[in-house]
C-alpha cells in the first residue's frame, strides 16, 4: 500500500529543511548518556548487553551498518534478532557467522581462575576487533590525526599542564605503530589507563573550552576516537558479566538476520521548493509564518535554497532504520510484541548507536510499548516507515498515515524552534563513545565501592561508564 502523494509532498520537503537547518546551526550542549545503574535491578545490564551486541555488528563506518537487536525467549533457548539499516544478504550471512562464533565463546562453564578469565577476555576482544577490522582502522586513523593536533595544541600552550598531557599523548602515539592486533590491544589498555588517570582530568577544561567556543574539535574528536576503541573492551566486560548472570543466553540460541529494507524512489517529487515555500507548509498561523519568514531571511548567507536544490536532485533513498525494522519484524511474526515473547519479558530493542530523532519520534507516536535507547537527536533525510501490505488491512495503512502525520507535526515544531533559538538538537558524533570516571551504581552503595554481594556478581569491569566526557567537568 503506497503512501498518498499528498503525504509524501508534505513530509519529505519538511524533513529536508529540518536537516539543512540542523546543519547550519550550532548544537545545544549534549545531554549525557545514563550511567549503567544496577540499583533498580538487572534490566539495565541486560539492555546494555543487547546494545553492545548490536555495536559489535556495526563493523564499518557510516550509516549502512547501523544495527539493532532484540533477544526473544524460545521454548528451548533464545533467539537473537538483528536488523540493519542497509546490508546485503552476503553481509548479513557473514555477520551471522561471526556473531555466532563470539557468542559460542561464552558458553558455560566459564573459567574460574583469574588467568583463564583474562585469556578468555583477550580471546573475545581479539575476535571482536578482527570482526570490526574496517571500523577499527578508521578509528585508528582518526585517533592518530587528532593526537597529533592535540600534541601541537599542547606545544602552543607551553604550560606545565600541557607538557604533562603531551607526554601521555605521545605514549599513545607510540602504540599506533606497527599496526597489529597485539598493538591495538595494547593501545586499548593504554587508553583505559589514561582515562582513569589524573592526567585525563587535565583534559576536561580543554574539552569544555572547545564546546563553549564552538571552535576546533581536536580534543573532543581525539577522545571520541579513543573512547570508541575502549568501547570494545567494555563490550567484552559486559558480555562476560552477562554470561555469569544469564548463562542460558549462550547455551542454546538461534540467530535471525532480518533483510534490510529497500529505499523508496521519488520522495522529493516535482521541482525543488525554496525554504520559504517549505516553511509555508508547516503552519497555517499567519503570525507565526511571518516570524518564521523573517528568521529565514536572517540565514541568507547560508544559501539554504541552493543546498535544498542540490540535495533535491540526488537525495539518498529513504530506508527503514534498524530499530524500526526489528520492531516491524516482531509485530508481523508469530507472537508479536507480547511480553512473554521477550527474554525475561523485557521489551527492548538495543542499537549500535542511539536512535536518530525520527526513530525516537516513531517510538513515541506509534502504538507500542517496546523500548529503545534515548536518542542522540541527530536527524537524517533517508528515513521512512515500514511498508504496509494489503493483507494487513486498512487499519495498518491508517496507523502509518497518522504516525507520519504526527512525526511531521513534530518536525515542523523543530523547524520553528531552531529558527527561533538558532540552536540545533543532536551532537557532532551520533555514537555514545566517551568514557568517564563515574562508576556504575550498585545496590547498597553511596558512592563507595560496589557491593558485589548485593548481586553475587563481580562488577569491576563496569567502573567506566559511557557518556559524554565533558559532563564530568561541569
From TrEMBL:
Give one Pfam family: OTT_1508_deam
At the top level, the lineage of the source is Eukaryota
The keyword Signal is annotated on this UniProt entry: yes
Q: Which residues form the signal peptide?
A: 1-26
Look up keyword Ubl conjugation and say if it applies: no
Please provide the record's keywords in A-Z order. Answer: Signal
Q: Under what name is this protein listed?
A: Uncharacterized protein
Give the organism's phylogenetic lineage: Eukaryota, Fungi, Dikarya, Ascomycota, Pezizomycotina
Amino acid at each position: 500500500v503506497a503512501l498518498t502523494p499528498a503525504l509524501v509532498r508534505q513530509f519529505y520537503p519538511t524533513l529536508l529543511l529540518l536537516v539543512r537547518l540542523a546543519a547550519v546551526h550550532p548544537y545545544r550542549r549534549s545531554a549525557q548518556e545514563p550511567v549503567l545503574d544496577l540499583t533498580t535491578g538487572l534490566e539495565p545490564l541486560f539492555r546494555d548487553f543487547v546494545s553492545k551486541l548490536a555495536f559489535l555488528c556495526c563493523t564499518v563506518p557510516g550509516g549502512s551498518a547501523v544495527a539493532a537487536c532484540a533477544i526473544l525467549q524460545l521454548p528451548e533457548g533464545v533467539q537473537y534478532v538483528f536488523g540493519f539499516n542497509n546490508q546485503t544478504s552476503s553481509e548479513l550471512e557473514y555477520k551471522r557467522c561471526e556473531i555466532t562464533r563470539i557468542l559460542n565463546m561464552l558458553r558455560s562453564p566459564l573459567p574460574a581462575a583469574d588467568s583463564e578469565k583474562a585469556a578468555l577476555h583477550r580471546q573475545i576482544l581479539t575476535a571482536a576487533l578482527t570482526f570490526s577490522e574496517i571500523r577499527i582502522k578508521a578509528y585508528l586513523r582518526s585517533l592518530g590525526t587528532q593526537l597529533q593536533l592535540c600534541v601541537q595544541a599542547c606545544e602552543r600552550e607551553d604550560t606545565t599542564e600541557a607538557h604533562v598531557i603531551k607526554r601521555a599523548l605521545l605514549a599513545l602515539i607510540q602504540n599506533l605503530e606497527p599496526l597489529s592486533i597485539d598493538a591495538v590491544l595494547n593501545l586499548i589498555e593504554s587508553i583505559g589507563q589514561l582515562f582513569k588517570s589524573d592526567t585525563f582530568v587535565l583534559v576536561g577544561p580543554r574539552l569544555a573550552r572547545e564546546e563553549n567556543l564552538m571552535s576546533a574539535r581536536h580534543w573532543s574528536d581525539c577522545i571520541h576516537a579513543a573512547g570508541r576503541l575502549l568501547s570494545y573492551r567494555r563490550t567484552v566486560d559486559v558480555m562476560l558479566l552477562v554470561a555469569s548472570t544469564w548463562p542460558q543466553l549462550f547455551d542454546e540460541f538461534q540467530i535471525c538476520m532480518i533483510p534490510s529494507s529497500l529505499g523508496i524512489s521519488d520522495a522529493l517529487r516535482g521541482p525543488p521548493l525554496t525554504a520559504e515555500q517549505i516553511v509555508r507548509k508547516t503552519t497555517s498561523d499567519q503570525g507565526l509564518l511571518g516570524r518564521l519568514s523573517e528568521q529565514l531571511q536572517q540565514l541568507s548567507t547560508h544559501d539554504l535554497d541552493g543546498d535544498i536544490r542540490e540535495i533535491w536532485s540526488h537525495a539518498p533513498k529513504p530506508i527503514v532504520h534498524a530499530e524500526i525494522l526489528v520492531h516491524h519484524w516482531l509485530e508481523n511474526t508469530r507472537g508479536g510484541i507480547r511480553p512473554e515473547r521477550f527474554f525475561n519479558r523485557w521489551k527492548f530493542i538495543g542499537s549500535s548507536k542511539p536512535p536518530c530523532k525520527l526513530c525516537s519520534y516513531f517510538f513515541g507516536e506509534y502504538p507500542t510499548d517496546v523500548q529503545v535507547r534515548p536518542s542522540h537527536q541527530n536527524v537524517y533525510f533517508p528515513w521512512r516507515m515500514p511498508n504496509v501490505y494489503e493483507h494487513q488491512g486498512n487499519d495498518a495503512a491508517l496507523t502509518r498515515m497518522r504516525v507520519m502525520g504526527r512525526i511531521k507535526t513534530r518536525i515542523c515544531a523543530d523547524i520553528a524552534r531552531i529558527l527561533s533559538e538558532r540552536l540545533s538538537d543532536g551532537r557532532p558524533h551520533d555514537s555514545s563513545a566517551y568514557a568517564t570516571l563515574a562508576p556504575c551504581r550498585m545496590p547498597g552503595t553511596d558512592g563507595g565501592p560496589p557491593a558485589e554481594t548485593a548481586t553475587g556478581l563481580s562488577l569491576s569491569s563496569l567502573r567506566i561508564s559511557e557518556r559524554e566526557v565533558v559532563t564530568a567537568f561541569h
